[in-house]
Amino acid sequence: MFFNEVTPQVDEEAKPFKQTIVGKPEAYRKECGKAAREFRPSQWRNSMLPRVFLLALLLLSFFQQTNFAQAEKKASTKPSVKKPAKDEEPNPLAAQRRTIATSLLTSLAEEARGYQDLTLRARVLVRAADALWDSDVEKARSLFRRAWDSASTADKDAFRLYEEERQRQRKSTKQTYIRSPPELRAEVLRLAARRDHELSEQFLTLLNDESKANLNSSSAASPGTEDPENPPLDVANRLQLARQLLDNGDVGRSLLFADKVLDRVTTRGIFFLCALREKDQPAADERFARMLVATVANPTSDAAGVSVLSSYVFTPFLYIIVRESGSHSSQEKSNIVEPNISPELRLHFLKGAAQILLRPILPRDQDRTIAGKRGLYFTIARLLPLYEQYAPDLAPQLRVQLASLGADVPEDLRTGRDSMLTKGLTPVDQVRDEGQEALERVDRMADGEARDGLYVRAALAAANKGDANARNLVDKISSAEVRKSARAYVDFTLVSHALDASEVIEALRLIQSSDLTHLQRAWALLKAAQLLKKSDSTRALEVVEEAAKTARRIGGSDADRSRALVGVATQIFDIDRARVWEALLEVVKAANSASEFTGEDAQIVARLQAGSGGTSTSSSTISEFDLPGIFGSVAREDLFQSIELAKGFNADAPRAAATIAIARAVLNSKAVVSQ
Fold it and tell me: Which of 42, 284, 287, 628 pairs with 496 at a CA distance of 20 to 30 A?
């Protein structure tokens, strides 16, 4: 092991010091505390550890494991020794560990001030601030402010580069996947809001002021209206923060931010209430009722607002907005299930919605609503069956209103063929099979490219259900390029489906025969091993070894090699803990050869190039491929060896990610560990 390789020579130098310190716990603790306070990670990277600190660390481990119990026993017999109070640290070693962790974070934050990478600087500062909060509030608050300044500059630069790349691709015939830039200020806001409400309100004000200054007046809504999808920036920012807090389980803090802007209809607000209802139904229903009352009382409310409100009552996490210029829907969950809304609240919504939908229809040149006549017709037509079921006395008036709009809407709406009319409202078993529908149209298509597009749709529909026939459908695609791309996408989808269903044997069979990238294959093998480890740890370890071999096939300078090896180390920690240090040494070596490896934000991406049919991309974050998880785990096992490994990273980003994870593991740990 790397740590053990550097200790023998120093151990000889430490003998005289050990002889003087054994049996003297107070002096021992003072020496360790002094060393910890003087600790600076930036001084370690290119030189040996300062002698005093290294001796203290070695003695800390040596003394605790062999002499601590005896020394404490001797000390307890002396009448001058005061027994610790109940609220004091039960183990002085835990206090020393916390001192070391705090020093790690403080020194890292100082070092971050010199980072040229503003994104990294902001992330290190805000995470150090969050981790330090319980130890030093004022220091943490100062770091939060510095993190905000860095994040503001980084966000501007990242967005500028992103837009430049989008413009370049619009002029290019070859389209590639562009990863959206991180919203660093949102990260700072989320962590600050967990710690200091007043500080986060200040950050929100700064963000809103800056956004308003950059807002082009042409993007504003029409006079007298407020677009539910594009609310004022202060509303959008506040709801985004509230949703992040809610998703992290902090219901109380999320409501502190959201309550100020839940007096109007917004798509973000409705989705927030849908998510809140899963955690606190009475609180969500109460706020929805208030939003409904405010919307009905607003003379500018229109069918678009009604359609968004209906999401909470009938189709949670799915909304549809129809405008004169077109329609748009957004869906957060794959399965839409009608919620258990009380009959009183449902009727309250239907009555309020009818008041808006039955308002006099304005001439086209005076209509300033978001929905327009097309949106009004759509909303009435979509909700009419629900009125007939739950409020039949209101249905006749709505039919009259619908008839008066018929001449001004497209034929698909009048005939009811528009699929949006029933989206989310029709039970899943009554929805037509998209794949079967595509196959029924194939024989009527003379154009080869159009036929290929239908086969792609049918294959994807089958793969999403785990149907192995998807591969046979791919074989029918005539274009070799599209067929190759579709096969890779379908194979990955089938493997993912098997793993999600915990069908390990089938997943392993598919992995062997599928056209996957090395990273996808390593990820799939590690997921299979994770499923196997409880029932068959021997087989699980064999699968992890296969994943390691796959990871090593990735190019040495490719960051994906390091990511996959992190995943290997993560699984080894759970299956064969003694080997994790060896696995992490391989991670460090690989990372030092990959300049783009940051140790965070690992993703698995699958892309489908379907010719003129466009490009489909699916991506998901893989936390098991990131450094914080595994370094947090090993820090609880052996603090000093994990520090040694962390400082082995040459690049700032992975070293900072590992260091913060180590410090967090110590500061957040309630258990007394043995190292």
Answer: 628
Asked if 634 and 584 touch (Cβ cutoff 8 Å), the reply is yes
- Least Cα distance to 310 among 333, 276, 336, 282 occurs for 336
Please give the structure tokens belonging to residue 674: 């043995």
User: CA separation (Å) from 578 to 384, 424, 544, 581, 661?
Assistant: 65, 51, 15, 7, 20
Tokens matching residue 308: 């968004």
Spatial separation of the C-alpha atoms in residues 219 and 368, rounded to whole Å: 15
pLDDT of residue 442: 67
Residue of 125, 103, 102, 99 lying closest to 114 (CA atoms): 125
Q: Which residues make beta-bridge pairs with 58?
A: none
- Cα–Cα dist 302/69, whole Å: 75
Residue for token pair 């497209």:
410
Looking at the chain, the number of H-run helices and the number of E-run strands are 31, 4
Taking a C-beta distance cutoff of 8 angstroms, is the pair 29, 92 a contact?
A: yes
- Tokens at 467, concatenated: 């149907």
17-59 pLDDT, tens digit per residue, is 334 333 434 443 444 444 444 444 444 444 444 444 444 444 4
Cα–Cα nearest to 607, from 172, 174, 222: 174
DSSP conformation class of 331: E
The residue ranking higher by pLDDT, 139 or 68, is: 139
Nearest to 560 by CA among 587, 581, 532: 587
Q: Regarding beta strands 603-609 and 615-621, do their DSSP bridges make them parallel or antiparallel, or are they unpaired?
A: antiparallel
The first and second tokens of residue 67, run together, are: 């002499």
> How many Cβ atoms are within 10 Å of 324's Cβ, its own excluded?
16
Residue 621, phi then psi, degrees to nearest 5:
-80, 145
Does 83 have pLDDT greater than 90?
no
**What's the DSSP call for residue 329?**
E
Q: What percent of the chain stands above pLDDT 90?
A: 55
Please classify residue 537 by burial: count the beta carbons closer than 10 Å to its beta carbon, then call 0-12 exposed, 13-18 middle and 19+ buried. Answer: middle
What's the sign of the alpha-carbon dihedral 426, 429, 431, 434? positive
Say which residue the tokens 């989320």 belong to. 190
**Six-digit token string for 616:** 């489909």
- The answer to whether the CB of 99 falls within 8 A of the CB of 55 is no
Q: For the chain, how are helix, strand and coil distributed in percent, rounded to 5?
A: 70, 5, 30
3-state secondary structure 595-623: CCCCCCCCEEEEEEECHHHCEEEEEEECH
Closest to 424 measured CA to CA, from 510, 585, 311 = 311
Tell me the C-alpha to C-alpha distance, in Å, between residue 455 and each of 179, 429, 443, 480, 487: 28, 23, 11, 13, 12
SS3 323: strand
Distances (CA, A) of 615 to 130, 169, 482, 485: 40, 13, 11, 10
Alpha carbon distance 333, 277 (integer Å): 15
For 281, the token pair is 């139904």
* CB neighbourhood size of 633 (10 A): 18
Q: How far apart are CA 495 and CA 516, in angstroms?
A: 10
Lookup result for tokens 């029932």: 535
